[in-house]
Amino acid sequence: MNRLIVLHLLLSLVLTIAACAPEIEPEESCNFIQNSYSRRVSWGKVELKVGIEDKFPSQYYESLERAMKVWDQERPYNMFHGRPLILSSENKDAVDIMLLWKEKWQSKPSEQAKTAVQSQGDFIQKADIFFNANKTFSVNGEGGINMKSLMIHELGHALGLDHIDFPESVMYPTLPENMERTTLSAIEKESLGCEY
Predict the structure, then answer these.
(1) If you ran DSSP here, which 8-state letter would residue 38 be given?
(2) Tell me: the pLDDT tens digits for 128-183?
(3) Are residues 130 and 164 in contact, defined by beta-carbon separation less than 8 angstroms?
(4) Cα(80)–Cα(146) distance, rounded to whole angstroms?
(5) What share of the chain is helix, strand, coil (3-state, %, to 5)?
(6) In angstroms, rounded to a whole number, what is the distance separating the alpha carbons of residues 66 and 63?
């Protein structure tokens, strides 16, 4: 009988707390990923620290710096803090966004890269960007996947942007070989204004 009374009191307490909780208003997506409450998910800060795994081929470091500048030039402040740090994968928690070179690709073989975003509530806590080392990449857009274009796209995901079904968008779902998409469209610029 005492257990029944305790259970009843606990249930009453939970219902009272739930009734007092503020209702969470959904938001327009603005092309951002959304949580289960239909609210945009993004960083609660700017000047994000970026790292690149020490196994990543060094010929792509400049592509990363240029990709970061594409996003930085669209805001009155820097989205990213300084130059990327070169780190081992064991030290990836020292940065907000980490780029990793994966020789053993455990996802769809057709994927060039993918971004994993960890969030809590409306805020991104960490983002890891994995690059498929089995693909052919280029720094000049000829004879492979343009690394700067791909990095711009994946950094967009790391900032919280979803795919945008507009072929000129840097967030378009596919990037064919030898194609260069290195300029943000009006859609990305407007989307950034919703959150940052």
Answers:
(1) S
(2) 999 999 999 999 767 899 999 999 999 999 999 999 999 999 999 999 999 999 99
(3) no
(4) 21
(5) 30, 20, 45
(6) 5
Q: Are the beta carbons of 88 and 54 closer than 8 angstroms?
A: yes
Q: 50-195 has which CATH code? A: 3.40.390.10
What number of residues does the chain have?
A: 196
Q: 53 and 99 in contact (C-beta within 8 Å)? A: yes
**115 CB neighbour count, 10 Å cutoff:** 18
Q: Look up residue 135 and give its amino acid.
A: K
Q: Which residue has the tokens 């000129």?
A: 168
> Which two structure tokens, joined as six digits, stand for 38?
């239909």
Domain limits, the chain: 50-195
Token digits for 177?
A: 């070989």
74: tokens are 């669209």
